[in-house]
Amino acid sequence: MKFERYGIGIAKGLRVTFKHLFRRPVTVQYPEQKLHMSRRIRGNELIWDKDKCTGCATCAKTCPQGVIQVITSVDAVENKYVVEKFEVDTGYCISCGLCIEACPYEALYMGYAYERAKYRREDVIQTNEQLLPSADRLRSGYMYPEIAAQLPRQTLLLERITEEEE
Amino acid sequence: MTLKTEPFVLNVGPQHPSTHGVFRMRATLDGEVVVDIEPIFGYLHRGIEKLAEERTYTGVIPLTDRLDYLSSMANNLGYCLAVEKLAGIPVPERAQYIRVIMAELQRIASHLIAVGAFLNDCGAFMTPIVYMIREREKILDLFDMVCGQRLTYNYMRPGGVSQEIPDEFLPALDKFLKQMPGWIDEYDQLLKENEILLARSKGVGTLSQELAISISASGPVLRGSGIKWDIRRADPYSIYERFEFDIPTGTVGDCYDRYRVRVEEMRQSLRILEQARQQIPGGEFRSKVPHLIRPPVGETYAHIEAPKGELGFYLVSDNSIAPYRCHVRAPSLLNVTALRDLMIGWKIADLILIFGSMDICMGEIDR
Amino acid sequence: MMIFNPDPSSVRQMPTLAPDWPGGFWWHWLLFTVIIIAFVLLLVMGYIWLERRAMGRMQARLGPNRAGPFGLLQPVADALKVMLKEDIVPVNADKIVHLLAPIIAFAPVLIIFAVVPFANGALLADLNIGIVFVVAISSISTLGVFMAGWGSSNKYSLLGAMRNVASVVSYEIPVVLSIAGVVLITGSLSMNQIVLAQEIPFILLQPLGFLIFFIGGCAEINRSPFDLLEADSEIVAGFHTEYSGMKFAMFYLVEYAEALVISALITTLFLGGWRGPILPPWLWFLVKVMVVFFVMVWTRTTLPRVRIDQLMALAWKFLFPLALLNLFITGIEILAWPTAIAWLIPVNIAVMVILVLLWSKLFKLGWGRVEV
User: Fold this and answer.
1) Which positions ≥6 away from C25 have C-beta within 8 Å?
2) Residue C129 falls within a domain, yes or no?
3) What span, in angstroms and rounded, lies between the C-alpha atoms of A163 and A161?
4) What is the value of ipTM here, to two decimals?
5) Which of B296, C49, C75, C253 is paired with C62 by a 20 to 30 Å CA distance?
């Protein structure tokens, strides 16, 4: 291999890196700066609508990891199942979203939050009331376009760069 | 007096900064020259093929995400094509286009990582890979918008895709298509003609056409050797016969050719994306598919041109809700078998370089 | 006697050391020892900061910005962290060699600064063989590096150390030859005299010498693209793979202190040292040193790494003959036209361009595949 280009290629490369010195860095300083996540984010928790749930356990059957456990008893008077225990081991959950897709009664949602790391292993297993929606447990728009429409618009790196440049 | 020498055996990996995962090479060295090399893998074995036998046909899709984790969309596509072929599921027009868009975006994303990691292995201290990860980030943003995840997408389903693309997706895609060619040109400026890179990679690790064919290499590794073989053309799946694109090939099959082929493929993918963006029709995103798919008894093989090569899924059905057997033809695994022939006689530095130019994903090799 | 060479009596007229300084020599010695150590340590911190920030910006990142304003205290935080780390010595390591290596690598770097002038006459010892002293001492660090590689009982370390020895031995020659060109023009080996002789920075009179010295210097201190001994993508971290805690910090310090030495030498030999208008001399010196280092960071950010045989080929086939030619041409120029500097500048630049182009066509970089 000969040194044929007399360093022109090297000079071109140096120009590119030098140009970047004056470009805006793309780093996001995470704990202070937070981006809007995707409206369809599959956050790391499940949100369960107790009233809509019939205890059919389709979600449990669909789950490839088998992390959903549904225990029901029969309410003979009303002729329906009563969900006694709805338990999700989010530690084993791979956030594939197949349970949400499978639920025939639209009673399961992915969570919008993504900062749900726990210190203890037992906290990761969530049961009944812990799974209900609340103010800080927003539902994500995954498989639910009408919820997605209410969530803030996702921040795109694509747009951030174009705005900064000429 | 005779001097006694003993071979200098160096373990490269499984924990090594540039083995791209947990790959191990037991290299016998003579000074800096590689005399012998033995690739060892299996450190990332998760038994995906066996696990697939326990899952429903839909439930396998999240597993395919974890094969080649840098190109989940392509894996999803390959698997879904196999299931559709097996069960005879039709795919609506719009879904086909969405799939092509996703697969081509994924190809760009995967090649960005491949090229960036290759240049990083050459020793360009982090710069190319940081630039390329930045571009990949934009693609991941698009995927995130569509399916809510950035790495394990689980987006495609037998019979279409899981959800309609959101309204803001196509404008964002247009923006991406406008920006991306400029960025690729800039990467070319950065290192394409760099003398050191040329000296390092030209003529290094030459994979001859005969060897490439005999190890059944595929993807950019095969095309780098100058063989025009692309499954999108050779055996068109999905709707690839509708698009116009070239198959970039190298000439000698060295590391530089493989690198150039990847960069050119990114340009061709952008061409396909432009066309798909123009032609995308309205309509259904998924055909009516039963919740539990029970394909008739039989077997099938479907292959696609994944970013790393020919990705094939071999499925056997016994008319139950789970595949009886699911075998994955992983391109990385077959490409990596050429390593010993390519590396012997080169220096340690080249060993890393050649390995980098193969674009290996351990998730796929070990499965 | 060359016309660039100032009148020796004029040098004597501007001593910075007052003749009636109490204690005389020993005070001077103490003062400059303290200054040098402080200078090296502070500037190394500055270098680390500059490298990380500049590299961050070139890579579209921010770089460290948490500790202190603009992350200026980041090197301090790093130092604190590294001091609190456990010191791990491999079981099979040669303990004494392992311990001594960082010290042996570090000491010579400090010693070199004894002869680097920060301002006119402001140096620890104005040795009349200053530049030879630098060349002699700077090679000792290699010993420390090789000890580290050998003592760690790690194959990667050994490979890195062997590479370092090979590169230093090879690059010493073109570097010394390129220095010889400067010495020819100056007519003195003293660093202070060299600076005083630079009415015009020698980069203009010795462009080829500067190029060779810069490349060779980068190779000797293992800055990218010649950072083979710690090529992180190939041999993990090279010779300091097995070092942790304070010992690792020493090697880290050596790396940047060596970069400081080379940039100080380039400044002194080719960029006119502390000379410059308006600003005080020491500030000029600092600014020039920083600019030289920035170029090093810049190349490190951009360029891939060369291979060991290419490294050797570059030294012996490219730099060595060019350095010889440069010395030859410089000698002729000084013999024939000792008074005509002004028109020698374009001539020398033209000579450099022609030689580099010619040699680029002629030589072959590396050997390629070896049959085994």
Assistant:
1) none
2) yes
3) 5
4) 0.84
5) C253
